[in-house]
Every structure is written in C-alpha cells, then in structure tokens.
Amino acid sequence: MDVKEIWEEYFVKKHTEGKGKDLERKLIASYYELVKKVANRMHQKLTVVPPDELCSMGIDGLYDAIRHYDTTFNTKFETYAM
After folding, report:
1. Residue from 18, 2, 20, 1 nearest 10 by CA
2. What is the pLDDT of residue 17?
3. Is the pLDDT of residue 19 over 80?
4. Which of 58, 66, 67, 69 falls between 20 and 30 A from 14, CA-CA?
5. Alpha carbon distance, N-terminus to C-terminus of the chain
6. Cα separation of 23 and 17, whole Å?
7. Helix axis angle, 3-13 relative to 19-45, nearest 10°?
8. What is the pLDDT, as a whole number, of residue 46?
9. Cβ atoms within 10 Å of 45's Cβ, excluding its own
10. How many angstroms separate the CA atoms of 23 and 20, rounded?
11. Alpha carbon of 43 to those of 38, 55, 56, 58, 60: distances in Å?
12. For residues 82 and 75, what is the distance between their CA atoms, to the nearest angstrom?
C-alpha cells in the first residue's frame, strides 16, 4: 500500500476505533525519513539537543500534523508537517 492509499483510507476510517491508530502508525513510518532529515538539520543549529531527542519530538509533531491535516489546505503534507 503506498502513502496515497494510506491517506485515502485514513480520511475514511480515522474515527473508527483502532483502525485510525493503525493507519496513523503506517503514516508515521512513511514519513519517518522526513522527521530524521529535519531533526538532523535542526541538530546542526541546536547542537546541545541530541538528534534522537529531536526525532522523538518530531514524531510527536508528525502525529499532530497527521491528525490536523486537511486536503483543502492545497498544500503537500510534507510542507504542512515541516
């Protein structure tokens, strides 16, 4: 299942008990590389914060972005999440 199909199913089933959480986890896995990329970029400026901690915070932010993303924003999810 590609990320577009996961999004389509997520928008339909995100309020279904259990199913929405499974789809959120799939989306997190799909965008984990984006989190790592942003965390590594931030670590260059915030050298006192370990990259793993930045990734952890990034995943929290990614969950929030997934839950609030709306296709009517006319913005790619990656742009919205960053």
Report:
1. 20
2. 74
3. no
4. 58
5. 24
6. 11
7. 120
8. 80
9. 7
10. 5
11. 9, 10, 13, 12, 17
12. 11
Distance of CA 57 to the CA centre of its chain: 11
The answer to whether 62 touches 23, Cβ cutoff 8 Å, is no
Three-class DSSP category at 35: helix
Q: What 8-state DSSP symbol labels residue 18?
A: T
Residue recorded with tokens 């915030």: 46
pTM, full prediction? 0.85
Place of tokens 């995943």: 59
Give per-residue pLDDT as tens, 21-79: 899 999 999 999 999 999 999 888 888 888 899 999 999 999 999 999 988 888 999 99
